[in-house]
Amino acid sequence: MSLIEKIKSVIPSLNEDQLDAITSTDGPVLIIAGPGTGKTLTLVVRTLYLLISGKAKPEEIILTTFTEKAAFELRDRVSQLALKLDFKGQLHLLKVGTIHSLCNEFIGKFLSHTRLRKGYTVLDELTQKFFLYEYFDEIVTPYDEEYLGKWDSKWNAIEELIPYLNKITEEMIEPDELRNSGTSFLIDLAKCYERYQKKLFETNRVDFAHLQKIFYDLLCDRDLYPKIKQTIKYIMIDEYQDTNYIQEQIFMKLASPENNICVVGDEDQSLYRFRGATVRNILEFPNHFDYCRKIKLTINYRSHKEIIDRCNNFINSIEWGRFRYPKNIRPNPEEEFPNYPSVFCIRGSDEKDEALRLVRLLKFLKENKIIQDWSDVALILKSVRPDHSQHYINALKDNNIPYFAPRAKTYFENEEIRMMIACYAIIFGFYSSEELDNYNHKPYIEDAIMLLFENCDQLLRIYLQKKVEQIEGLVEGSLDITILDYFYQLLAHKPFNLFLDDENKAYNLSIFSRLISIFQSYYDISLVTADNKNFIKSYLFRSFFNFLLKSGVDEYEDPDNPIPKGSVQIMTIHQSKGLEFPVIIVDSLHKNFAVQKQVDRDLLPFSKRGIFEPEKQLTEFDRLRHYYVAFTRAQKLLVLTSSQTPKSWFSPIWDGLDQYPYVEEEALKAQKFQSKSQFIPKKSYSFSQINVYEVCPKQYLLYHEYNFQPSRSAQVLFGSLVHHTIEDIHRAILDGKKVTVDQIENWFEQNYKALLSTGLRPISKMQKENALSQVTNYFIQNQDILSRITETEIDVSVEKEEYIIVGRVDLLLSEENEFVALDFKSQQRPDYNPALIDRYKKQLCLYSYILREKYNRSVKKMYIYWTAEEKREDALMEIDHQEIDIDEAGGYFDKVVQKIRHKNFKVTEKPDTDKVCKECDFRFYCSQNGTIIFKAE
After folding, report:
1. What global pTM score does this model have?
2. Distance between CA atoms of 553 and 550, rounded to whole angstroms?
3. Residue 814 pLDDT
């Protein structure tokens, strides 16, 4: 049986176009994949075809997509299909991820060739804003009636400036060209950009755009390029219609000179112009090569044929010219479609009436078992902010229909968050008329304080009074307390301790811990002092919370369960991309649709390629693309709804539709839509996380499931400082460089500054000297073995049927064609502690197994190196192991992970209070609920 025959026997539904895409592997390939045409399946099978045919090893394939969720789905589906096709290769070596994770991976390997240092921080959308705020006066031209002659307030300037800064990087625009433009705004912008970039590298931070630019610069290095390229043979990029210029340049360099590059996408579904994406990349992709194979996937396996016909009418309703590939999406020819109203509309006299009509439809669908679960329905809006979604939410609430709208920006309306902010207002004295009269969110603070006092007990009142008196009485020096410490102390009191028993409230509180951690980091505050207490009060409320309350914060979304059962899903068009539901309801048809054009208008004339799509057609193009994405999410039923006459551009899909309830209800009642099982990725567990669970399941739950941000992290800094500097030694030796004690001290100081910039608390002078002593002592005592270094900081993973274990081997040495593995611990060698050593043994045994599979070389010896020991013979602890130990280790980790997966977080054995609980932020909470006994502070 040939490979293709074997694949077809496992997946008989593959059509000829999909098979063509799977087997066309050499040279450039463009796959235009319409909605519901099975592009993910095609990419998965194509990957296995490359592997099984022997064209590539796993480590020679790059597979990138737009989101982490999509990357996880590709990874897991490749693994599932590999089992069916009996492929036993090392799939964990596949480079599957987003473009940002790909850049991150290679930057980590070649960090010494960049301007970044170990422990660099990647700024997300929120922290990029706070970074700009933190260094605003150093970056932005001084205020002269308006910032840069355009913006009247600092926060407005930050919001508007970020797209310009990102665009300059992504389009690789030279600041000198802006400076020579003769336009005062662009001249000032060039200065801002250069100062912004300088400050990023000074503080060891990087935004997403610069992450890509740094990787691109590595690819342009003649000496480094062969090292990066040597293990890459095939590249596949999903969602290519939403890539930008610098991403295109990265992919072209990675593919050259063989050009075994396959891009998949659909220009009709391009959504991310506002983030710098351009359909130009997919439309002009063939122009980069002498020959490019073009394949179109046009059979839609997702939707009812009437939905497909209506969507075709909509997307073909304008003249696209050269800005679209002609295509005709077809229904599955093998499927018989029942005759029922699959597309209709709702028209209300006003928003309230429209929402009530929608609720009646939902009840009709559920009561007649047309849908099996509320999560079979998605309401897709242009925006889910309250001014767009509140009338729907009110109607759903009034009729007891559960809904899920995490991006409605209503995070601060949750009672647990309102009361927590009230506590901070009281502690720092931000509640008097004098403070609130000129505050934008005065009613919010007043209502929050009222809510708090309706729900707090006497113990919390006493605690708050005590903290108020401490701060008011602080006239010099500092309190040994951080702003985040107050948060963890408050969690020990009612009602907050009760909120931790509610999963949703616990997740919301964990988000609050991250926000406070961001405030401390970006306003450079470690402890509360006499000098900064008024600064904290002012900037925490007048700046930080003021901005967050104005812009809104998303509520928690579980990455392992993004579409929770039992709730109608309310989402934006962008959220819906890549998803499908039995029932789709699309609103906002009577509202205007605006496109941000000013950034492109100002900057694209200076880009390497200039302007592509005509500005006068941008709104028309993007409007159709956005709503085409929304409409094509529907499997069985598409409902269009509006409280006013829809805009004229919706006529091709709206005209002639029956209006609910005047539809053929009996035909609809006869339908029983099957719930679409949403993809849930395999969860990864690190060895360090598993160790935390074994010591204290509750600590694991709070820090690793709920993701609370630690406040007391001095020990984390100490260990990271030692590890990072020892890694510097190893990297330099691998690069053939000479290492001196002076150089080590320099690395040590750089690492210390970098770690502090991430928000970790400083360590004492004595601790810092101790950390440096551990590193230099290790270097001096191990000169004889450092020449045998094979690799350092090796990422390892074991993929199980239901989960993945990940870890990192600190150091590999060569010894007689075998490996010696070392794991570093920045502590003294423990006294007799068989339980602790057994845990480390199991971890190293599993590392041994993975390394043998990865390199086809056995691990002869395994050591733990305790860096706090002065003598090498005391520092080196050999861990004896045999084959049976490796098997037992795998079984042991299975048992621990199963406990975690079954949410078994009850503490049955109390941890050592001095060793485990002393530095844990939840010691007050656990003491209050009786888990431990700990003296309150």
Report:
1. 0.90
2. 9
3. 86
